[in-house]
Amino acid sequence: xxxxxxxxxxxxxxxxxxxxxxxxxxxxxxxxxxxxxxxxxxxxxxxxxxxxxxxxxxxxxxxxxxxxxxxxxxxxxxxxxxxxxxxxxxxxxxxxxxxxxxxxxxxxxxxxxxxxxxxxxxxxxxxxxxxxxxxxxxxxxxxxxxxxxxxxxxxxxxxxxxxxxxxxxxxxxxxxxxxxxxxxxxxxxxxxxxxxxxxxxxxxxxxxxxxxxxxxxxxxxxxxxxxxxxxxxxxxxxxxxxxxxxxxxxxxxxxxxxxxxxxxxxxxxxxxxxxxxxxxxxxxxxxxxxxxxxxxxxxxxxxxxxxxxxxxxxxxxxxxxxxxxxxxxxxxxxxxxxxxxxxxxxxxxxxxxxxxxxxxxxxxxxxxxxxxxxxxxxxxxxxx
Length: 384
What we know:
- The chain is mainly α.
- The chain has a domain at 307-358.
- The protein has 14 helices and no strands.
- The chain has helices spanning 6-23, 29-38, 48-73, 78-103, 110-128, 134-152, 155-174, 178-204, 211-229, 231-242, 255-276, 279-299, 305-326, 339-357.
- The radius of gyration is 31 Å and the shape is globular.
């Protein structure tokens, strides 16, 4: 089912782990080279600058090819344009398969752009056809993105598939009636939580092939869980979708509950991340605190913006300084010290112990140290 050899994907994962170990001085340069030699990779993954250049060239090639086909076919009707867009999507997929098989492109820029253009052409076909069914569009896009994610182990396609799944489930649930409109945010929060715990179970299996796909979906579930309970998102989305025409000061049903979610979820992420030593959850909570502040600021202007930013900066500096001082002595497996240097020192000590343990003096092969001659005394045999 996968377009790549599993051994190449595994060796690619080993290279990434070895690179991280080298960056944190856990392995030496020589050991790093030995790891790369022991786990060869046939996949082509250039540096970021070459990826960007190849991606831009691919975009230009696709756009010019699409315009040329449009001019040659003289497609003007809706059906002809939709057919052309579907044809371009199929062509991009064929080229993707051929390039991956022939050149082993893996996150090389070309393959990423081709996958993205497949999704763009399919979605554009729905918009051009005036098909007012987001339910069908999201379901078809979800299926295609899931296949691309599984086939090419692409994390971005995994994110696209989850977004489409989220939209599909949300729109499908709204068809249940007015009760569904009132309870949709809670249902979507429950779905996000369920998918998050599913991803955690998959990550515990130590899957090296889809590791980044699972991590990307995990991050998205955390953001979706907060967004589904955010007061601003719920109110503004209700205004747009259900035509409630609520003003800035008009409350929404169960508004107090969504304000609790808005205020509680980011600190809960941080606390949970600290307890479980999960930096992804912790950093997501820190980022969502900013969203919470903007939500409060949008509805309640307590102080001028300049004063609030100044007070927030002072508070962050004070908290950071207090944490650095508190964690100077490691507590609960957290420390503010440079643990990489400590690891290097430990490795040096281990290397010294190993060298001393296996160190032995060279054996002397020649028994006659001083040449021929004879002497006696003290029980000597005369051969000294």
